[in-house]
Amino acid sequence: MIWVIIISTALVVFFNRYVFLEPSLPIKLSPVIKKLLSFSIPAILTAICAPIIFLNDGGFRDIPLNPYFIGAIFSILLAMFIRNTLISVVLSLAIFMLLKTGLSSYF
Predict the structure, then answer these.
(1) Which of 17-21, 48-52, 55-59 has the lowest mean pLDDT?
(2) Which residues cross the membrane (predicted)?
(3) Residue pair 57/73 in contact by the 8 Å Cβ criterion
(4) Lowest mean pLDDT segment, chosen from 17-31, 39-53, 55-69
(5) What is the mean pLDDT of the chain?
């Protein structure tokens, strides 16, 4: 049953991407749909990242000494000022790891 779900999900994703990325298919989206779709990536990333940043096993994390929150702020600032995705990701991960090891000594 799990393999059926995995394969069917892969097919749905493939055909969804194929329809919109294949230039020979005559599908055109209206400007309203294009504008609505431009908000989907930030919405998905927020839905994935927010629980990791703010929630712990037992509830909310403490904001002042939360390495996840501080790392998220640094990654946002790095992404704003450094327009290279790879460098931003590597620096954000390095800052997060330094924060996590540094702040774990306080607990």
Answers:
(1) 17-21
(2) 37-56, 68-99
(3) no
(4) 17-31
(5) 85
Taking the C-alpha atoms of residue 45 and residue 47, their distance in angstroms, rounded to an integer, is 5
Contact present, 14 and 6 (Cβ < 8 Å): no
Cα–Cα distance, 31 to 62 (Å, whole number): 42
What tokens were used for 98?
């330094």
Q: How far apart are CA 84 and CA 67, in angstroms?
A: 23
Q: What is the mean pLDDT of residues 37-47?
A: 85
Start-to-end C-alpha separation, the chain = 44
Which residues, listed in sequence order, are joined to residue 55 by a DSSP beta bridge? 60
- Neighbouring-strand partners of residue 63: none
